[in-house]
Amino acid sequence: MPKITAPSVNPPHYFEMTFTAEAGRPYRLWIRGKAQDDFWGNDSVWVQFSDSVNSSGAAVFRTGTTSGTEINLEDCSGCGLSGWGWQDNGWGVGVLGPQLFFQSTGTHTIRVQGREDGISIDQIVLSPSTYLFTSPGALKNDNTVLPASGGGTPQPQPPTITSVFPSPGSTAGGTSVTITGTNFASGATVKFDTTAATSVTVVSSTSITVITPPHAAGLVNVVVTNPDGQSATLTNGFTYTAPAQPFIILEDDFNDNSLNFAKWSANNLFSGFTDTAVQTLETTGRLQIGALFSGQSGSHYNGLRSTAAYNFSGAYSYVELVQGPTASTTADAMFTIGQDPQNYYRIYVEQGVLICQAKIGGSKRNLFTAAYSSSVHHWWRMRHDQSTGRVVFETASDNPDLAGSWVIRYSEPWDTSAVPLSSVIFELKAGTWQAESIAPGTVVFDNFRAVRP
User: Fold this and answer.
1) N or C: which end of the chain has fewer CB within 10 A?
2) 37: which DSSP letter?
3) N- to C-terminal Cα distance for the chain?
4) Which of 50, 87, 53, 60 shows the shortest CA–CA distance to 71?
5) CA distance linking residue 97 with residue 132, whole number of Å
6) Rounded to whole angstroms, how far apart are CA atoms 28 and 133?
């Protein structure tokens, strides 16, 4: 018959066999064949597999397609044939064909289709190690016949590591990295020097993802150990670096029971009228404002403002509201960032409602409101997102310095003409604006901090 130039999707003549192989490992295909009458026109076949892939994981040489890998027993045009010989799927003297990979670990099927008449096949070998780069026997007049094998699981090979990315990472740990290499087995463990990584996921035999553990700054070895005890070490494979320390703009934990007048100005609010009769003091390690007045009409607010104006570009500021005013009153507890009574951003609580507010050019807008929860809204934060130029209002229930604690409540572009980032004032205040029939109680703040990351 004439030479078949491509495999057939449904060939009329073929045979199939099953074997087992591992996903992600390279295999070399060899056959021991003989051409009828040692004629070069009788020496080739097409070979396909049920789930073969290339080194990048793309499907190749699949049964049911017109893609196949070709085996020509003669090594080159004019090289000649003589009796039985071992050949792979490469063409040319000393040329090895493409390695084979498989999509999954387990049982696979090989299909052999005729390409020319007259070829006989004695043995087929798929080797991940012994014959990966060496032929099982001679190309001509071969007498090598290998012991029969069902293609059982190959002898486990030790892992190798080629890269760890990204690097460097923080000494605090928590960096998600991908380790690339070979022969990674399910259940493998990873250590950075002698400390075990967490969240180890063996993605494939060539990739592992992990979360780095905490470690002192410097270079460390990365060690991957398979369940069979075989391991690989990438010397100085990862670098730990100390995280950059944030720049403290202004902070006060109010723990010394004495107002710090280098940081704060008392009885001198910037955002509205100050009633010095409303007591403001630092006591029991907190800032206390009140008791707030009841039965008095008009504005009665007091608290603290920063003595200086600060550059707030790319910065954030938060405070803990330990105790708000009585929810059945219209008394306020307020945290404000701004410059004058007509231009500021504010978070406050009034009558059991949390409110995010902007006052620009003397016009107030409530940006966000929600039923106030002393646990969910325990911490308040305003920040300038330098990448987007927005003011962001956030709250947290606990541990404000922990990544992921903050919940964004609202954001909009920061009006830099009304509230210049180069010169903002911080203010904590509380008070009443109308006569309250019920005692509004005392407002308590704690742990103020303004930081540029």
Assistant:
1) N
2) G
3) 77
4) 87
5) 11
6) 8
Q: 301 and 275 in contact (C-beta within 8 Å)?
A: yes
* DSSP category for residue 84: S
Residues 6+ apart with CB under 8 A from 18: 107, 108, 109, 110
Distance CA 74, CA 87 (A): 8
Structure tokens that stand for 410 in this block: 């609202």
Q: What is the pLDDT of residue 403?
A: 62
Q: How is the chain split into domains, by residue range? A: 14-127, 160-241, 247-452
Q: Residue 29 and residue 254: Cα distance in Å, rounded?
A: 75
How many angstroms separate the CA atoms of 31 and 447, rounded?
76
For domain 160-241, say whether CATH 2.60.40.10 is its number: yes
The contacts of residue 395 (CB under 8 Å, 6+ apart) are: 347, 354, 376, 377, 378, 379, 380, 381, 406, 407, 409
Question: What dotted CATH number matches 14-127?
Answer: 2.60.120
For residue 152, the model assigns a pLDDT of 43
pLDDT at position 1, please?
Answer: 60
d(CA 87, CA 11): 23
- The alpha carbon torsion through 16, 17, 18, 24 (nearest 10 deg) reads -70
Q: Which tokens sit at 38?
A: 């040692």
CATH: 3.50.50.60, 2.60.120.200, 1.10.10.10, 3.40.50.720. Which one for 247-452? 2.60.120.200
Residues 6 or more apart whose Cβ sits within 8 Å of residue 402: none
Structure tokens at 333: 């507890």
Band of residue 226 on the pLDDT scale cut at 50, 70, 90: very high
CA dihedral 84, 87, 93, 97 (to 10 degrees): 170
Domain pair 14-127 / 160-241, same fold? no
246 band by pLDDT with thresholds 50, 70 and 90:
confident
**Which residues, 6+ apart, have CB-to-CB distance to 155 below 8 Å?**
129
H or E, element range at 176: strand 176-182
Q: Are 188 and 201 in contact (CB under 8 A)?
A: no
Q: What is the mean pLDDT of residues 144-154?
A: 65
Tokens of 441: 């109680």
